[in-house]
Amino acid sequence: MTRTVTVGLDPEEHIMKAAAVRAFGEPLGVPPVVVAVDGSEPGLRAVDWAADEAVLRGLPLRLVYASLWERYEGAHLGEGLHKPSEELMAEDIVGVAARRARSRQPQVRVTTEVLVEEPEYALVHESRDATLLVMGTRGRSGLAEALLGSVSLTVAGHAHCPLVVVRGNHDNQAARPVHGRIVLGVGAHGKGSAAVRFGYEEARRRGAVLDAVRAWRTPAHETTDHPLMSGEPARLHERQAVEALDSALENVPADVEAHRHTVEGDARPVLVAASYDADLLVVGARRRPRTFGLQLGRVAHGVLHRSACPVVVVPEPA
C-alpha cells in the first residue's frame, strides 16, 4: 500500500497529464481537486474551500488522509474489529469530511481514500494527478496558525500542481469570497508565468478583479547623496517594475479587470498587506527538475506563514 515518490519532477508533466485525459464534452478521468484531511478545524476549513472550488470548476473532490500508523501500532487492533485503532479513526475522519463537503455543496462528487503512507510523500504523489491540492494550516490557535507545519511546507516545495493553503479565517467555516479581489504577486517569471495564467483564469472564473502587485527596492549601493541625482535610482527601479508588470500581464484576456500596482518594499510584507482585503493570493515557485531540497522561494515561504487569505503556490518550470 505504500508508494515510492520521486520529488522534483518537471511540473509541465502535470499540465500534459491534465490535457491528455480530456475527451469530448464531459471530462473523462479529469484530475480532481484533492484536499488533505486530518480531523482538525483547519483541515475542515480546507474541505469547505475545496468543495466550493470543485463546484466552481465542475470537478470531482477527492479527500485524502495519510499516515504511517502501522509503524507505531504494529499488530495492535481495534477491539473486535480487526483493524488498527488509527485506521478506524482515519475512516471516521474522512467520513466526517465527506459529509461536511456534501453539506456545503450537495452537488459535488466526493471520493475518499485512506493511505498508509508518510503524509508528505502521499500528498506530493497525489499532486501529480490533481488539478489543485488543498491543505489547511497547522494548529488550533491564532498563534499556531501563524506558523505552517512541516508537512505543508514540504508539499508546497514539491507539489506538481498548484497548492492552496487555506488561511485567514479562525472560525470553523471557510469564508466564502466576499472581496471580489484576487492578488497576484508578479515576480521574475514574467510573461508566460504559470502563476499569472492561474491568477487571471481564477479571476475570470470568479468574476473577480485581478490586482497584480510588483514590489521593488533600490539597492543600498545605488543610492546617492548628490542633489542632482536624488531619486534617480528609485525612479529607475520603479520604471523597471512597471515594465515587468506590463510584460507579465500582456496576455490577460480583455474580459478580466486587471489592475497594476508597483509598491516600494520587500515583496513578502507588501503581499501580506495586500492579502487583508483579498479572497486569494497567488504566487509562483520555481521548480528545477532533478533538484532535491525545498523548492519554494523566500516570497512564497513568507506569505504561506503570514497571509490573511488563502494562498496559492503555482509551480513554475525552470
The portion of residues forming beta strands comes to 15-25%
Summed over residues and divided by their number, the pLDDT gives a mean of 80
Helix share, percent: 25-40%
**CATH homolog superfamily of the largest domain:** HUPs
Query: From the helix content, strand content and strand pairing, which structural class follows?
Result: alpha/beta
What is the terminal separation in angstroms? 33 Å
Count of helices? Answer: 11
CATH architecture of the largest domain: 3-Layer(aba) Sandwich
Number of strands: 10
Question: What is the helix/strand order?
Answer: HEHEHHEHEHHEEHEHEHEHE
CATH fold assignment of the largest domain: Rossmann fold
Q: Specify the overall morphology.
A: globular
Strand order of the largest sheet: 3-2-1-4-5-10-9-6-7-8
| Biggest beta sheet summary | 10 strands, mixed
Residue windows where pLDDT falls under 50 for at least 5 positions: 1-27, 71-80, 139-147, 226-230
Rg from alpha-carbon coordinates: 21 Å
Can you describe what's shown?
The chain is globular. The protein is built from 11 helices and 10 strands. It folds into 2 domains: 1-172, 3-Layer(aba) Sandwich (Rossmann fold); 177-318, Rossmann fold. Strand 1, helix 2 (41-57) and strand 2 form a beta-alpha-beta unit. Strands 3-2-1-4-5-10-9-6-7-8 form a 10-stranded mixed beta sheet, sandwiched between helices. The protein has 318 residues and is an alpha/beta fold. Helix 5 (119-127) runs parallel beside helix 7 (150-158) and helix 10 packs parallel to helix 11.
